[in-house]
Design goal:
Blueprint: E1 7-13, H1 16-29, H2 35-41, E2 48-54, E3 60-66, E4 69-74, E5 79-81, H3 83-88, E6 95-98, H4 100-107, E7 112-113, E8 132-137, E9 140-149, H5 153-158, E10 163-170, H6 196-206, H7 237-248, H8 263-266, H9 273-288, E11 296-297, H10 298-306, H11 326-335, E12 339-345, E13 348-354, H12 359-362, E14 386-392, E15 409-410, H13 412-425, E16 429-430, E17 433-435, H14 438-444, E18 451-453, H15 454-463, E19 466-472, E20 478-481, E21 489-495, E22 499-505, H16 514-525, E23 529-532, E24 541-545, H17 549-559, H18 570-575
Parallel strand pairs: 6-8
Antiparallel strand pairs: 1-2, 2-3, 3-4, 4-5, 7-10, 8-9, 9-10, 11-13, 12-13, 14-15, 14-19, 16-17, 17-18, 19-20, 21-22, 22-24, 23-24
C-alpha cells in the first residue's frame, strides 16, 4: 500500500469529539483493546491528527497520527493498526512468526508465501480468512508486516505453497520513512504467546457432533424377520425397480464432494464482500468450469457468471470489496492458483485456464443449481433503450400541475399542454401571451397581471422542474433517472508508434453491452476492437483501431436508432469522409 509514492491530500488536527470517536472505534473493532490499551495508543492529552493520503493506485486512505507517530490506517470500512501501534499493544491482532530473511524480501515488494512462515501448531494463533493479521520474525517479536490473511490459520498450517498474506503495510515502507513523523525504529520485543488450551476449549465448544452416515452397505447379515411379523410388500413392481435402481447407482468420482447444500451449509456463505466474491467464483468453477468456453473475458465473467450465484438477499458489488476492481480480485485468485488471466486484446483481460482440481474447488459446496439468468453473449444484438427527456414536477410548480403529485414526470409537450389548460381555465390567455396570476408570477419571478410570452413562460416553468431521463428497454422495463443523461462521447487519441485509436465513452449508460458492440464493430469495420478504460475515464470504453468516428456515429444513429443529440459531435462525424 505504501511501497510506492503517495500524495498528501489533507492533514487535520483531531478535535476532542473526533478523538473520542477514534477511541470508541478502536474498542469496537478490536475485541482485545481494553480501555488501558487504547489509552496507550491514543492518550487523552495527545496531539492527534488525521492525514488523507492518495495512494499510487488512486485510492484514498486515512492515517491517524498520535504525537508524531502513525497509529491507525483507515480503509473506510475498517481500521488497520500500523507496526508502531503493535509495538505498544502487541496483542491487538493475531501475530504470526516468519523466518528472519523473509522480512527483507517483503520490504522489497515480494508477497509473503506459506513456506516463509513458522508453523508451530502449539504456538500458532487462530484467525479466519480475510482477517487483519501481523507478522514478526523469529529473532524479534516486534511486528514488521501488517496485512490481510488470504487463507485461514487452519489452512495455513497445512499449506505448503502459495501466497498467504496481502500486504497492507510493512516496516521500512514510505509511510515509515515519511519526514512528517518522528524517526521510526523497530524495537526488540519478545514474541506474542498464545495459550493453546484456550484455543482448544473454544474449538470444542463450537463443535457439532453428528452421527456418521454409512456410505457403504453393511457386510453383516441382517437377522431374519420373526415368523409372525408381517412383511411390508411394495405396492407395485415399479416401486421395487425404482428402489433397486437407487441402490445400484454409484456416485461419479468427480462429484463425490458435490452435494446439495443443507440449511446449515447455506449459513456458511460469507458475510463480507470479499468472501462473497470468492464464494461466487468457486461456485462458478464448480458448476460451469467443465463446460465453459475459454478464453472468457473478465467483464462477462462478473456479470454473467458470478452475479447469478449471489444469494437473492445479498448484492454482489466488487466496488464494495477491498479489491475495488475486478482485475485486482482476479489477480488475488490467480495467486491462489484458482484461475489464470491473460490479456487477449489490448486492454482486454480474459480467463484462459481454470484449476478445477484445486482443493478449494473440489471441497466447495456450491448451490444445487445455477439460477436462471437472462441470455447474454456476443450473439445478442446490442439493442439500446428508447430515451426520452422528461421533466419532474417540483414543489415550485405543483399548484400549476394539480392534481399531479410532486415527482410526476412529463414531456415538454405535456408541460405545454398543461400550461395551456391552466391558462384557459382561468381566462389568462391573451394574444400570443399570458396574463400571470399569483401562481405563475411566483414561478416566473414576475409581478401578477404582467403579460408574458408563451415561450418565456415555458422556459421559466421548465427551469423550475427537475430534468429527468426515461429509458425504455427492449425487455419492457422502464428506468427513470432524475438527471440529464450525458451524451456518448467519441475521442480520437494517438498511442505509441503514432497510431490512432478511437475511444467511445458512456455507452453502458444507454444499455449497450460493450463486448457485444465490440464484436459487432469488428465484423463491420474490419479493425481491432475491444474494451478498455483510460486513466481519466470513470467507466469502461469501446476502443477501435484508427479514426472510426464516422463509423461509430453511423452505427449508433442509423442502425441502432439513437437520436443525434445523444451522440456528441454526431453531425461532424457523419459529414466526415471515410
Amino acid at each position: 500500500m505504501f511501497a510506492k509514492p503517495y500524495k498528501l491530500k489533507s492533514n487535520n488536527t483531531l478535535k476532542n469529539s473526533e478523538k473520542k470517536y477514534l477511541v470508541q472505534r478502536i474498542q469496537n473493532e478490536f475485541p482485545k483493546a481494553t480501555e488501558e490499551k487504547v489509552k496507550e495508543l491514543v492518550p487523552i492529552k495527545s496531539n492527534s491528527s488525521c492525514m488523507k493520503l492518495i495512494l499510487y493506485s488512486g485510492d484514498t486512505v486515512g492515517v491517524y497520527v498520535v504525537d508524531g507517530v502513525p497509529m491507525m490506517i483507515d480503509l473506510g470500512d475498517k481500521l488497520v493498526p500500523t507496526v508502531c501501534a503493535l509495538w505498544k499493544v502487541n496483542d491487538l491482532i493475531p501475530i504470526i512468526s516468519i523466518h528472519s530473511p523473509v522480512l527483507s524480501k517483503v520490504q522489497g515488494g515480494a508477497p509473503l508465501y506459506a513456506p516463509g512462515i513458522v508453523t508451530d501448531s502449539t504456538k500458532f494463533p487462530q484467525f479466519p480468512r480475510g482477517a487483519v493479521i501481523a507478522a514478526c520474525t523469529t529473532d524479534n517479536g516486534a511486528a514488521g508486516i501488517i496485512g490481510r490473511a488470504v487463507i485461514s490459520s487452519a489452512d495455513l498450517l497445512i499449506a505448503t505453497m502459495g501466497v498467504c498474506l496481502e500486504t497492507y503495510h510493512v516496516f521500512g515502507d514510505l509511510l515509515c520513512k515519511d519526514t512528517k513523523f518522528s524517526k521510526i525504529t523497530r524495537p526488540k520485543l519478545d514474541p506474542a504467546v498464545y495459550d493453546i488450551t484456550e484455543v482448544i476449549s473454544s474449538d470444542i465448544s463450537q463443535l457439532r457432533i453428528q452421527p456418521v452416515r454409512e456410505e457403504w452397505p453393511s457386510l453383516v447379515m441382517e437377522p431374519a424377520a420373526a415368523t409372525n411379523e408381517p412383511m411390508v410388500i411394495p405396492e407395485s413392481v415399479q416401486e421395487m425397480q425404482s428402489e433397486s435402481t437407487s441402490v445400484q447407482e454409484e456416485p461419479d468420482i468427480n462429484d463425490s464432494v458435490d452435494t446439495v447444500c443443507s440449511e446449515d451449509e447455506e449459513d456458511k456463505i460469507p458475510s463480507d464482500m470479499d468472501g462473497l466474491l470468492r464464494w461466487c467464483l468457486l461456485s462458478f468453477l464448480k458448476r460451469e468450469g467443465k463446460h465453459i468456453e475459454l478464453p472468457l473475458k473478465t467483464n462477462l465473467l462478473y456479470k454473467n457468471h458470478l452475479m447469478p450465484y449471489c444469494p437473492p438477499d445479498r448484492t454482489l458489488d466488487v466496488k464494495k470489496s477491498t479489491y475495488k476492481k475486478m482485475g485486482k480480485f482476479l489477480e488475488a485468485m490467480e495467486r491462489e492458483g484458482l484461475v489464470q488471466v491473460r490479456e487477449v486484446d489490448k486492454g482486454v483481460d480474459a480467463l484462459v485456464a481454470l484449476q478445477l482440481a484445486h482443493p478449494l474447488v473440489r471441497h466447495h459446496r456450491a448451490p444445487a443449481a445455477r439460477p436462471a439468468g437472462p441470455p447474454s453473449g456476443p450473439s445478442q444484438a446490442p439493442a439500446p433503450p428508447r430515451v426520452r427527456e422528461l421533466h419532474c414536477v417540483t414543489a415550485h410548480v405543483a399548484e400549476i400541475f394539480a392534481p399531479l403529485k410532486k415527482g410526476s414526470a412529463l414531456s415538454a409537450g405535456e408541460v405545454r399542454a398543461a400550461l395551456a389548460r391552466y391558462a384557459a381555465a382561468r381566462g389568462l390567455s391573451a394574444r400570443g401571451a399570458v396574463a400571470l396570476d399569483a401562481a405563475l408570477a411566483k414561478v416566473a419571478a414576475r409581478q401578477p397581471q404582467e403579460l408574458m410570452k408563451w415561450e418565456e413562460l415555458m422556459s421559466s416553468v421548465l427551469g423550475r422542474m427537475t430534468p429527468s431521463t426515461e429509458m425504455s428497454f427492449p425487455d419492457g422495463t422502464v428506468k427513470l433517472t432524475k438527471s440529464r443523461l450525458e451524451p456518448i462521447k467519441m475521442q480520437v487519441v494517438t498511442r505509441s508508434g503514432n497510431k490512432k485509436v478511437t475511444l467511445v465513452s458512456n455507452l453502458e449508460a444507454f444499455g449497450f453491452e460493450l463486448s457485444s458492440l465490440a464484436h459487432a464493430s469488428q465484423l463491420r469495420v474490419g479493425a481491432a476492437c475491444g474494451v478498455t478504460r483510460s486513466a481519466a475515464a470513470r467507466a469502461d470504453q469501446l476502443l477501435l483501431q484508427g479514426d472510426q468516428t464516422h463509423f461509430v456515429a453511423k452505427l449508433l444513429i442509423e442502425e441502432y436508432g439513437l437520436p443525434k443529440k445523444f451522440v456528441e459531435g454526431a453531425d461532424k462525424a457523419l459529414n466526415k469522409k471515410k
